[in-house]
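Annex B. Sample input.
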Amino acid sequence: MSHLARRTNEHHEPWSVTVGRRSSETARVSTKMLWFLVFSVWLLAVCESTACPCERPELCEPIRPQRSFEVFVFDVGGKTWKSYNWSMVTTVAAFGKYDAELMCHAHSKGARVVLKGDVPLSYIVDQSNRTAWIREKVDLAKSQFMDGINIDIEQAVEKGSPEYHALSDLVKETTEAFHRDIPGSQVSFDVAWSPKCVDKRCYDYVTIAESCDLLFVMSYDEQSQIAGDCIAMANAPLSQTLRAYDDYLDLKIDPKKLVMGVPWYGYDYPCVNLSQEGICYIDKVPFRGAPCSDAAGRQKPYKWIMKQMNSSSSGRMWDDEQKAPYFYYKDQKGEVHQVWYDDPQSICPKANSVRAKGLRGVGMWNGNILDYGDEPAAREQAALMWNALLGC
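Annex B, continued. Sample output.
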């Protein structure tokens, strides 16, 4: 308003008595136009903020009831969500393009849909930047009828640094703002598979856990830092995975704040050398201080893995030490690949431990990457993967 008024005044300068009646009339017209513009913008904002895209307006109300057991699903876009097992889903973290149809459907099933939240930590060290970011996310959640936010910040942080403290403040202030403006909303934070500075993510896990509603533990990519021999290994070996939860619990973090994330994908590693014992040596690809990492391989979705395994040279094999399946195949160049992945047999004992340790629930990265086709084999594979989340 002030800028518009100033431009109007400048147009009629210099001020003098010669302006007379025409100047006064112009000013009155300008004022009326200004108020009309302001009212139109306000009305448009009100209409947009109340326009529910669902067939039933009540489906735009936030989901408030808390489920005793969480099944937390990451969705990265598309329409495969229509094939999810909605009798299990409690929260969907929408990492793809906003889909009003997904929101309406999830709400009809009593499931939350939450935003993705990511921001450079160097930016939110400044309090005003942090406040502005939080305000933007709350307003976006309200305009899209969402039920909270999943903060997915996976940046390296040094303990005691300005970013270290800013991250803890961000989680606390985001949770307070969402709980205040969207009653019953959920704020979750994604953490590494271990609290021991994995990938140099040296966060204040205790303070963050106290501040938010859930910690989603990313129990995968556990070979992101390989300190020993550069060899292909399981994405999430059972004993290593479970030991890390004991590490979280040893910090006195409430088990009801922890959701176990499991992978619905695997890694395809080209073998630089394959030993007689079947050990696949991989390229040295460093990551955050470690000489080797799983970046030497490529992430592959479960649906690709199942098809590739059926045509593989070895068929499905099982590593009893890591409690994980794998197989070999040769590419068109004749090079040997080793593929490590998770399936119902490897996921079930992890899911069993969720109940045994009294954790809040389970989830996966990500819900879209199963084969939801109509073929009987595909439907059976998808059903078994969903059911494995509840243990065996």
